[in-house]
Write a structure and sequence with these properties.
Length: 815
């Protein structure tokens, strides 16, 4: 058979076979669902009524019905949240974060994602954007979150910074930035089948506080994403992400983002492989300018994810008339082999008679076959406008459509472009309508929450029943629903306070008259009056201009402890015993915060970062609390708190070395002798606790109204201070010493012993007993019930522990 006839025969046979194959596939094929899903241990390939071939052509976007890139039986939606923050208000602005977000959003839309895109969000906007996005996710969705902007690493984790960030401490960062862990946890709760979080925020730390960065200098620390999630950082821990390679680098995107989006369109590339390629590419580019940057990958996802599926599916439409196609092919061949092939397949076909006639003609002896030349394969050449339009259509971006209309105002795809723009307009309007509805709902929730909050503040003010509590309500709600009632309540309380003050003044005068008449008999039978303060007999000195003031305490003897008849007495205060005390000097005031700060600044001493505090109605050890930050406001002239017995001893050693004088803590006997100042009553002003507020800072009406959680008995007076007060704010005792009761408990030199059996009688410190268990504290504080505010009260605590009620007073040995 001549070669050209053999080719024609083969062509007809192929057409017939293909038609038969199409008919078989039409009945045998299942649902037309394509794409790839790889799960651990299994690999499934869905094959529709098509011929499937590995393709080097333009990839089809995944995530649509014809080619989802991640599926396991059925595919969910593809959702993306993209945030680009570069217009920062109080920290360094960025140049390319917005561009990076725009480019990433464009590529994600091309890959079939529904994208929520945001620029320059403040904190409230970031919270709202995340919540709106999370609420749209349903189980089985594929999710991508991309953030470009500033980030910072602090002890509690990594945080993404809104444009209105202004933080001077790690605590403020936690309250005004969005935690990366919070984001991954919210995504986990939404139960997406796969979540990819891309963080391009590993730049230099923009936050400063008194010259120091808040958090790590640069980079974000490793994260452990929840199951089903993958987190990608633009740089590894401690590295800086580059926005550009040099001043001549005109690329609109940062180095990481440009390399990432350049690889997204490649079909059949697993996300892990894509990230590995980006890591290598970024590392090589950075090394060319002697910089270290390698993106970091933290992966807890399951299965494999593709932006574009690993196959491109070419649809082959099954023929509707196989016999007609075979006949036309035979006619085109115009050869014996062609017509014979038709008759072999359709011996009784519609064109069988015509085929036999053609065969008879061709088989005549004088017939000469004419060579049949196969037409050259068609060359698909797209015109420039079509090529341009295909790029526009693939992007799905408004800017691209506008560019097409500008370039081809009378082009052949103008109508389609306008339809696409109309779709975008409708989508934007729908999106705006949803956002408006969500805003209205959020505003209503905020209004209801504001009403609930105001009601709670009002209830708290009523429970406090003090001018301070009502003032706090008015400060927060000057035009609130209960403002008039709060003002009326204040007037009522002020009137009642004035009446109580008159009563207190009368009572204090009575107490003072009794004190003047109090007589204590010494062993020789001589009468001794507990006199009032005599300024001309008080000797005060300083050993240096900024040293604490010291008061000379005269020698004497007294009955230490309390009698069995004293109200509120503890067993540890007995038995009473006579003690003689030598002359010494005691601090006029408790050591102040400013004085302790001078010691820390001069010596570099570390006074710790943990302290027992009372906050939110609970007393417990809290990190981040210390003498500088005890959980309530203090001035430099307040007594230092959150200092241990060890801290007090360190201060004393420093001051002794500085002055070359012998400073120390008071012994317990010296403390009680100095506190009594010649008195023998339960308190150095008398027996009644109700007169305390003129002489001491104790837990009283002020504290109960202003310190949250106070539920115990308080003094029946008002000293004007809720927490600590400035030293010297109240009346001194007869020796000229201030705050010997109240303000703060004061460490002494003595070891704890459960009573005075075997105690020294010479005023020396008792340095045997349970020394490792505790050291003795005296004087009570602003925090305690009236029973503790007595000169004989004793307490103890572990020497190394710190508490918001504990401070100390100095003693000095005199020559």
């Amino acid at each position: 058979m001549p070669e050209h006839r053999l080719l024609s025969f083969l062509r007809v046979a192929a057409i017939v076979a293909m038609a038969a194959f199409s008919l078989v596939c039409a009945f045998a094929a299942g649902p037309a669902e394509t794409g790839w899903w790889e799960s651990p241990g299994q690999r499934f390939e869905a094959r529709p009524q098509t011929l499937v071939a590995q393709s080097s052509a333009q990839p089809q976007p995944a995530g649509v019905a014809r080619n989802p890139a991640l599926q396991g039986g059925q595919a969910g939606r593809r959702m993306a949240l993209v945030i680009g923050n570069d217009a920062y208000e109080k920290v360094a602005r960025l140049e390319k974060a917005g561009n990076d977000a725009l480019a990433m959003a464009r590529e994600l839309r091309a890959a079939g994602f529904e994208v929520l895109e945001h620029r320059n969000l403040n904190y409230r906007g970031m919270v709202k954007a995340v919540e709106t996005f999370i609420n749209r996710i349903t189980g089985g969705d594929q999710v991508v979150v991309f953030f470009a902007g500033h980030g910072v690493q602090i002890r509690s984790g990594s945080y993404l910074l809104p444009v209105d960030i202004e933080a001077s401490s790690e605590g403020e960062v936690e309250k005004t930035a969005y935690g990366l862990t919070d984001l991954t946890e919210r995504l986990s709760e939404a139960k997406a089948s796969f979540a990819l979080v891309i963080v391009d925020a590993c730049r230099d730390n923009p936050l400063k506080s008194k010259g120091r960065s808040v958090g790590s200098t640069r980079g974000l620390s490793a994260i452990e994403p929840p199951k089903g999630q993958m987190v990608v950082y633009s740089a590894s821990k401690g590295q800086q992400a580059l926005d550009r390679l040099s001043d001549h680098d005109q690329d609109p995107n940062g180095v990481f983002t440009r390399e990432f989006i350049a690889r997204m369109k490649r079909p059949g590339v697993r996300i892990e492989d894509l990230v590995r390629e980006v890591q290598d590419a970024v590392e090589v580019l950075a090394s060319k300018i002697s910089h270290e940057q390698r993106p970091a990958l933290y992966n807890e996802s399951r299965g494999s994810f593709f932006f574009y599926g690993p196959t491109v599916v070419v649809q082959v439409q099954p023929t509707t008339d196989p016999e007609g196609e075979a006949w036309r092919a035979a006619q085109e061949a115009a050869s014996i082999a062609g017509y014979q092939a038709y008759l072999d397949s359709y011996p009784n076909g519609r064109y069988a008679a015509a085929a036999k006639v053609k065969l008879a003609v061709l088989k005549k002896p004088d017939h000469v076959d004419r060579p049949v030349v196969a037409p050259p394969p068609p060359v698909a050449v797209e015109d420039p406008e079509t090529q341009f339009w295909n790029e526009v259509k693939a992007s799905g971006a408004r800017e691209y459509l506008d560019a097409y209309l500008k370039k081809y105002p009378r082009g052949k795809y103008v109508a389609l472009a306008r339809i696409e723009l109309k779709k975008l307009d409708d989508r934007d309007k729908a999106q705006q309508a949803r956002e408006d509805a969500e805003k209205q709902q959020a505003d209503e929730r905020e209004r209801q929450e504001a009403l609930r909050t105001e009601q709670a503040v009002w209830e708290e003010a009523k429970a406090g029943a003090s001018t301070g509590a009502y003032a706090a309500y008015l400060a927060r709600y000057p035009k609130g629903r209960y403002a008039v009632l709060a003002q009326a309540a204040q007037q009522k309380l002020q009137r009642e306070a004035g009446e109580r003050e008159k009563q207190d003044s009368a009572q204090r005068r009575q107490v003072e008259d009794r004190q003047k008449r109090t007589v204590e008999r010494d062993p020789r039978g001589a009468d001794k009056t507990a006199g009032e303060l005599q300024p001309d007999k008080v000797k005060v000195f300083r050993d240096c201009p900024d040293c604490p003031e010291m008061v000379e305490i005269p020698a004497g003897s007294f009955e230490m402890g309390s009698p069995a008849s004293e109200a509120g007495r503890f067993d540890s205060e007995g038995p009473q015993h006579r003690v003689s005390v030598n002359r010494f000097a005691a601090g006029k005031f408790e050591v102040t915060r400013g004085q302790f700060a001078a010691f820390v600044n001069a010596s570099g001493y570390n006074a710790g970062s943990e302290c027992y505090t009372f906050e939110g109605g609970r007393s417990e050890k809290r990190s981040g609390r210390n003498w500088q930050n005890p959980g309530y406001a203090q001035a430099e002239n307040h007594p230092v708190v959150c200092v241990s017995w060890d801290d007090a001893k360190a201060y004393i050693a420093w001051l002794s070395q500085k002055t070359n004088k012998s400073y120390r803590l008071l012994s317990e006997a010296e403390w009680e002798y100095a506190a009594r100042a010649g008195s023998s009553t339960a308190r150095y002003w008398g027996a009644s606790p109700d007169a305390a507020c003129a002489h001491a800072n104790v837990m009283d009406a002020t504290g109960k109204s202003q310190v949250p959680g106070i539920s115990w008995e308080v003094h029946n007076c008002n000293d004007g201070s809720a927490y600590t007060a400035a030293v010297g704010s109240y009346k001194p005792n007869a020796f000229g010493l201030y705050d010997m009761i109240g303000n703060v408990w004061e460490w002494t030199e003595d070891c704890w012993n459960k009573n005075y059996t075997g105690a020294p009688s010479d005023g020396a410190a008792w340095t045997t007993g349970e020394c490792s268990v505790g050291r003795v504290l005296r004087g009570a504080s602003w925090y305690f019930i009236p029973r503790y505010a007595r000169v004989a009260t004793r307490d103890w605590f572990v020497p190394s522990s710190r508490n918001i009620n504990y401070g100390f007073r100095l003693a000095r040995t005199l020559p």
